[in-house]
Automatic annotation (TrEMBL), chains A, B:
GO cellular component: membrane
GN (gene name): tpcn3
Domain Ion transport: 54-278, 454-614
Matches recorded under PANTHER family: TWO PORE CHANNEL 3, TWO-PORE CALCIUM CHANNEL 3
Entry-linked Gene3D superfamilies: 1.10.287.70, Voltage-gated potassium channels. Chain C
Record-given protein name: Two pore calcium channel protein 1-like
């Protein structure tokens, strides 16, 4: 038992604290996959620690969000604010970014700073935004186009924390040449088909449903056929030709098979292929950099103590390091990690074991303390009565859980039924009562809660309670093994959807800014109870009699940033546009460009990611390290390694003496389900089998050389 | 040189012809991936050869097409024929199928025949169709529903030749369990979202654009949200909620992200995963069966002649076999194949070389005979003049080709421009003239021809000529290396699209038959110059004022089989339906079912196929065998193996003595580009790296045991 050692460390033996600081930085950089080439002087290291402090990082994001949110208050605004107010806020934000920038410049060597394109990018953006604000202030604010607003979201990409977002953009950039080849061929195909369409239909004097000539202008045909690829105008574009003759449908069938299905699949294939290829390389680099950092941390703390004179790190130093890296780690958890690494109880670990620390720290372990049931504390006699025991036994059986789930299911059906019917209404109440009773007896400690407080008179509240309880059904589905892999994938891609969310925000923001300048005020929305005669055609006489106005799409406009975002969302789903009628035919360029960027590129990357994540979830199982950690935890639960359990319990002095007999230990660990993983973790796991072996061999290279940022300096 | 041997074979040495018949059957079965368990008695083998004759196979397909085409003439008909006529034709078709069936039963052992589900399937279909025809004839033909027509396309699947189609169906069937799990979760998600929608929007008294209450009926909501997944009703379904409050869009954004994007990607992932997994297994089986058949052919012809007493096949026997398998093969081609197999000029080949024959035969080799230019023959002095030589030199340069392509490109632009303008019109003529001149001097032997005949007065003909010449642009694009991989994939998937085409025809046919029974006559189409007042609402008062009628979709009906197919195509692209208005709400089931079968399953399989084909094209290069064949051909061209060339030329007695000097041999081979491959070949190549090694080892198993049909008997 190395327990005494770990306690003596607790008393803080005077180590060379600078070395520990540096080692801490290396380990936490490895853990969070940071790749900043910082100065290793003690002062710079302390500055770097401050730079990476969660509060500072949060602050940067707060300022970015404020800066982006300014679009809500600037003309065209949702809530208009005077120009001096928005400008002041923007200048404050810019100052904050500048301070952060200066801080960063102090942390890394000067020459590295000026070589990193992302810094130069930020500086350029800052100065441009600054200049435009100045210009806008000088001008009376009426004719000044705040075109620098387009650059704002780029800050989100270029701040140090935007690693994942930068990776996504790099992934797009890498796929671009391949995509462009396919795109060229695709456009070539569209152009040739358009030419054929012109020759086939142009001279027949056909009319569209609006009464305008059908397929007579080449550029119009190109646009119409491009939109057909998005399936937005699917039967409409074909109808005049079809009404004329059945044989013309052959043209459209060919077009749809070749362009809508085959070429769109090609885009997906190219994106998927590139996604796999480049991402794998990036993750490989990431793993390499991480290992290299851990090796450097190891070399800072190593001693030559082992049998063969090999360098090792003692448990004392390791404990101190872990405490610095993760200050709020419980002693028990730390001991668990040590016992995983030091499998043979030597009291020190070698390099290969040490390197695993970063991975181990990113596996979330929950310390579970078994608490007695409240009834057991207050009324021990009642709790231990035979009736109570029978209830507890019943509750633990599977049948009971099924019955419980069934009631929820029945309940869900009742919610869907017409609730005006008193029978249904009463049935719902019965369900609620049943459920409350069951919940009490189950003493369910899970995430599904019950609004047991008052205020039940309001129907609306009851509805919300019902809906929340329907979510309970997900658990029912999750308990079926077949569905778990699917739900696991769903949950795992959650964090990545956040990265895609950021990506989408950046792209949407840029398009929204451009769209607002182009189309603001062209389409007006009138409240439903308005009596204005303009309501019929969205306030623009050009829209009189168009489908756009008829379908009441008036709120689909670019009059403020919120509605712009919603229009762009609609364009993502189906690329329909009624904006050419109110401006100019060239407005189509905006919509085609948006379709290329968002649907062809970003959505395909999203699909590629889901495809790969799904295939990984189906083919791979847990990682090696996690398996060994789980095995250790299982051993603990089975009481095999009881020495460790006892030790932990005596350390964790909040706990009383452990219960005797065959009862389970009161302190237990649980891996916080394989679901709560970081994006990097998931990516790493995707290519784990390929990476696992090669990189350990490569790590035998010289250690103390400076490693450049292999991945992130090439934006 | 084994030349004398091959010539002596030519004189037809008396071999045991039965053995050769059987070996021929084995080799051609291996070549075409047939997997029929036939009787090996000489009589049955001869029957089997007849069964596989191309004429018999073609005849079956002709009858199938006639049988399927009957839908054009049966009520509801495109061209109505009396019921006795269609019934007679159908009975003739059914008799043909029966004859084919009996023939098949004679070829294979009786017990195998009754165990094969596809035969039983055909018999059942035949009897049912027969019964219904009888019934329809007995009844006066008015109230009889010809429901057996739904079964007709199944004949296409179950005939012996429908191998690829059966494989596609098996691939679907194998993916079904996995798809159904995802589908269950997807439907669960849709149902939960619908419940939330009901609670969120149901009580607010919102109205849709038609003025009907918005989101008040649970089943309507489920349907609307399901359609939202197909993106068909994208902004419309959201607009009332959006007009009420911006915050409600959060619900739709969540819904679209989860259901439209994530779940639809899951479907693709599941289909893709299964596609890869099962197809690989099937192709493995296919390769195994093929090798096994070749081994059997080998054991029929083998002699113990080699050094170590190993069994070999002599060139004489081999030549005879190849002539039987491929009667129209040129002697030169045969010699080429032999020289590839018998690399060391031994005069006999072992088993491993023999097995490759089936693969070698499926590589198409073109024999090119260099012919002198016609001018060279008629006016040798003109041809050899310095001017002519200069022209010939010029024409061969790259620059010239580029200029030629540029002219076509400019021409294409002119076609797109307004041709009423006389300048443009003249320019077009100039282009044509240029091109004719260039073509003459180029003496282009390629596929792109020029309508040089008269009749140029008609504008329409000129247009067609122009369009045909625009196709020439594809060659221009193809000459750029970057695009070739993409175009290669496009061309390669061509034959497979035919399989998918058959699959689509089967599914469409079934849905069209059902759709016609459900919706025939509900929607009427009136010719544009009709004056009927019903025209406005497609002849059905229920459609008065609906968007369906307004957008003039009247021709989208189920009134005959052609328009049914077109409606189904439109539903594939965008699942919009106006048929619930004219019939019943339950008609939606038809459309949802169609969407599930066609879009979720078949289209995804198509996308999965293209994805895989594209990735293969990008990652793999030629197969080993093809490489060795190509190497041999290159050697021939370089004159390394001149002995062989001389031999071939002296055999091919149409040719004069070969030219002397360093000129290229006048007889050359070309592999007919890697593009013209069979579907099976492409599939095999997809998994070649995995298959290449394992199967050669497995082939050491006992040879003469009966092998069952591993793949095709499990329909």
């Amino acid at each position: 038992m190395d327990l005494t050692v770990s306690i003596s460390v607790h008393k803080s033996v005077p180590f060379l604290s600078d070395k520990f600081d540096l080692a801490t930085v290396y380990v936490s950089d490895a853990q969070y996959n940071r790749n900043i080439f910082f100065d290793t002087s003690p002062q710079a290291v302390r500055l770097y620690l401050l730079y990476n402090h969660w509060f500072m990082q949060m602050l940067v994001y707060v300022f970015i969000i404020i800066n982006l949110a300014l679009a809500l208050f600037e003309d065209p605004a949702v809530v208009p604010l005077p120009i001096w107010a928005t400008s002041t806020i923007e200048i404050i934000c810019l100052s904050a970014f500048t301070v952060r920038m200066v801080h960063y410049a102090k942390v890394i060597p000067r020459d590295k700073f000026w070589k990193d394109p992302k810094n130069i990018c930020i500086i350029v953006i800052l100065s441009f935004i600054d200049l435009t604000i100045y210009g806008a202030l000088k001008a009376t604010g009426y004719f000044a186009i705040r075109w620098s607003r387009v650059l704002r979201p780029l800050l989100l990409v270029n701040v140090t924390e935007g690693r994942q977002l930068r990776r996504a953009f790099r992934s797009i950039r890498n796929a671009l040449p391949q995509i462009s080849y396919v795109f060229f061929l695709f456009m070539f195909s569209v152009l040739v088909f358009s030419l054929m369409a012109l020759k086939l239909f142009g001279k027949r004097g056909l009319l569209t449903i609006d009464g305008s000539p059908y397929f007579t202008n080449y550029l119009d045909i190109v646009f119409d056929l491009y939109v057909l690829v998005t399936t937005a105008n699917s039967p409409d574009v074909m109808m005049p030709a079809y009404n004329y003759s059945v044989f013309f449908t052959v043209f459209f069938i060919l077009y749809i098979v070749i362009n809508t299905y085959t070429f769109m699949s090609f885009f997906l294939a190219v994106v998927y292929n590139n996604y796999k290829k480049y991402l794998k390389e990036e993750v490989r680099q990431l793993v390499k950099a991480r290992r290299s950092k851990m090796c450097r941390a190891f070399s800072l703390l190593q001693e030559t103590r082992g049998e063969g004179g090999e360098p090792v790190v003692t448990q004392a130093k390791w404990n101190h390091l872990v405490k610095l890296v993760k200050p709020n780690i419980s002693i028990a958890h730390r001991e668990l990690l040590w016992s995983v690494l030091d499998d043979q109880n030597k009291g020190h670990i070698g390099k290969i074991a040490f390197v695993q620390l970063a991975d181990l720290l990113s596996i979330q372990v929950i310390t579970v303390k078994s608490q007695p049931h409240p009834i057991q504390i207050c009324f021990p006699s009642v709790y231990n009565s035979s009736v109570s025991r029978f209830i507890r036994y019943m509750v633990r059986t599977r049948v009971f859980v099924y019955v419980y789930d069934l009631i929820i299911l029945v309940n869900a059906v009742f919610i869907g039924l017409d609730e005006e019917n008193p029978v249904v209404s009463n049935a719902e109440w019965d369900c609620v009562l049943y459920e409350i009773l069951l919940s009490l007896s189950l003493h369910l400690n899970d995430q599904f809660f019950l609004f047991a407080a008052g205020g039940y008179t309001s129907r609306q509240i009851l509805d919300i309670v019902f809906i929340l309880r329907v979510v309970r059904l997900i658990r029912l589905v999750d308990s079926i093994k077949r569905f778990r892999a699917i739900i696991n994938t769903l949950i795992k891609i959650g964090p990545t959807i956040l990265t895609f969310g950021q990506l989408i925000v950046v792209v949407y923001y840029i398009f929204a800014m451009v769209g607002m300048e182009l189309f603001k005020g062209k389409v007006q929305f009138f409240e439903p109870n308005s009596t204005s005669p303009d309501q019929e055609y969205c306030g623009n006489p050009l829209l009189k009699g168009t489908t756009f106005a008829k379908l009441n799409y008036c709120k689909n406009n670019f009059n403020n940033v919120v509605s712009s975002f919603i229009v762009l969302l609609e364009l993502t789903v189906v690329n329909q546009c009624g904006f050419t009628a109110v401006t100019h035919v060239s407005a189509r360029i905006f919509f085609v460009l948006f379709h290329i960027v968002v649907v062809i590129i970003i959505i395909n990357i999203f699909v590629a990611f889901i495809l790969e994540a799904f295939l990984v979830e189906y083919t791979f199982d847990k990682s090696d390290l996690q398996t060994s950690l789980e095995k250790k935890i299982e051993e603990l639960e089975d009481g095999v390694d009881t020495g460790l359990v006892d030790a932990m319990e005596s350390i964790d002095n909040e706990l009383g003496p452990s219960e005797t007999g065959k009862q389970k230990p009161s302190l237990m660990f649980k891996i916080a389900s394989r679901r709560s993983r970081t994006v990097d973790g998931l990516l790493q796991r995707m290519f784990e089998t390929d990476l696992r072996h090669e990189d350990f061999n490569e790590e035998e290279e010289p250690e103390n050389i400076n490693f450049s940022n292999p991945v992130f300096d090439s934006v």
